[in-house]
Here is the input.
Amino acid sequence: MSLGVAILGSTGSIGRSTLAVLERHRDRFKVVALTAHSNAELLQSQANAWRPVYVGMVNGAAERGAVAGHGAGCLVEAATHPDVRIVVNGIVGAAGLEATLAALQAGKRVALANKETLVMAGELVAAAARAGGGEIVPVDSEHSAVLQCLAGKSVQDVTRLVLTASGGPFRTWEPGRIAQASVAEALQHPTWKMGRKITVDSATLVNKALEVIEAHFLFGLDFPQVDVVVHPQSVVHAFVELVDGSVLAQLGFPNMELPILYALTHPERVADSGPRRFDALAAGALTFEPVVPARFPAYALGRAAGVAGGTSPATFNAANETAVELFLTGAVRFGRIAEIIEGVLAGAEQHPATSLDAVLEADRSARRRAREVAC
Ligand code: NAD
Ligand code: MG
Here is the structure.
């Protein structure tokens, strides 16, 4: 029997890669629901190709013919549809939170690319999974790598994770030049092809700070146990150091289709004829460098917000989302992103992140404050 899949954000980079994976595994999975924000044309053509029973469009009219949902509520409807077993959350940003919580409460597997929601509300996400019997399986390549290395081991066997970062387009730039970088320069990612927001996050290294917090919540490790190294080739996705000193790693050419497939089939492995197979000689030299704090000031801010806990990660995330939006629309220069985040965090109240209201209030007030700080 094939497993029903909902894809939230089907028109995005993760959504399209998920459909490319499912195309090769039609015997195992069927697409039950698709949602998108505003790309009606692509959503319509995906709906024509896959004939899901539910199609939802957040902003605008959804496809005629299938059961159609509109507005933000369509995300929860798609995520909790009775025919859905696995929800691939490929939404960008805080907008994905309620659907993740609802899917977990309804006992679904959430294949989570939407790391912002785990960063904002890690404790609520864990509570929703416990209450409803759902589970989170990471799609993020570094966390998928950790999960793959952990197979058959318990977290007690782990002393340290090392997540790799490509270093983004500004890895070798002087800090003064980075501060003035243009939108086009920030969107030139050296190894990964992704949506605009995460591409800017990879240039500031906010993405890696989000991933450190994501790892903390996914694997239950303390922050000193989650390290980061810059690895420009993006071939080693993460290292896992075990109590006896052994270090495991997962490798592959940068491509999201394997982590997506693994999130669908975990803990099983299935044969796949997908992306280019790894070839050590073609990969050539693999190099590793420390993160240079002066180049990536937002990285330390994100780690500190993670350590502070409570609503601080939600504040960090919302300040960053707002600052990135302002940068992408040309309202602020690149160097302001870290400054805005710092200004917001400095003035923010911190509360326990144990209720959805507290998290959403931290998110709202950080967005408001970020716009004030930006002026
Ligand atoms: P993207 O911009 O390409 O796609 C985002 C998708 O979310 C689109 O389908 C869009 O319709 C939908 N969306 C946007 N705003 C929405 C809203 N307010 N309500 C409902 N839907 C909305 O982004 P992406 O690169 O696919 O990234 C998606 C998520 O996956 C992000 O959290 C990102 O950090 C994470 N991620 C992406 C990659 C990658 O390779 N692209 C890798 C790891 C993690
Ligand atoms: Mg990643």
